[in-house]
Every structure is written in C-alpha cells, then in structure tokens.
Specification:
The chain is an all-alpha fold. The chain has 2 domains: 7-55; 57-87. It has 3 helices and no strands. It is elongated, with a radius of gyration of 20 Å. 1% of the residues are buried.
Length: 108
C-alpha cells in the first residue's frame, strides 16, 4: 500500500521556499540599488525613475538601458571575479567603450 502524501507539509515547505525567494529578491534589489549608486537618490527620485522606466514603451531606449546594465555587470565581474568566472551573463564584452556604466541618473 502506498504511503499517503502530507499535503499540509508540502504546502508549508513551498510557502517557506516562496518566502525565502522573495527575501532574496528584495535583498538583491537593495544590493543593486547600492551598487549602482542609486542609494544617493531620494526615495521619491528613485521611485519616479523606476515608474518612468516601467512605463517606457520605446524599445530602443529599453535596449540601450539593457546594454548599459550588461556593461555594468560585466565591469563589476571583471573587477571582482577571477578570469575563469568572468562574463557569466553570456553577452560578449565590449572593450574600448568610453561610456561609464554608472553614469548620471538622467542619462538615456
């Protein structure tokens, strides 16, 4: 005879995992805000910028922001990771780029 499943225990485990994932997401978002220097902005400025980004339908702007984000992460990984760990995001590095990945808040 088959052992009955403990649905309550499984549900509890899934809820705990969901809480852990949400906590990790919030922590990583905070770390990203600090790493980009956006913690220097007021809460209102940061919220306004995020709202503007989410409302933007212009694909060329969104692509430019995405490229800039890739450059930001690549530059960070080159400074902190050993050579074997670099470029884990899968996008090729763009050597010789003069654009700062942590440029001013109003750029783009």
């Amino acid at each position: 005879m088959r052992k009955p499943r403990d649905f309550d225990a499984e549900l509890k485990a899934l809820e705990e995992k969901a809480r852990e994932l949400k906590t990790r997401k919030v922590q990583q978002l905070g770390e990203l805000v600090i790493a980009t220097g956006a913690d220097q902005l007021s809460t209102d400025e940061l919220a306004g910028a995020l709202v503007a980004i989410t409302e933007t339908k212009d694909t060329s702007k969104r692509e430019a922001w995405a490229k800039r984000g890739v450059m930001f992460f690549e530059s960070r990984s080159r400074r902190t990771a050993p050579a074997s760990q670099r470029n884990l995001r899968g996008a090729p590095a763009q050597p010789g780029s003069s654009q700062s990945p942590t440029g001013g808040a109003g750029s783009q």
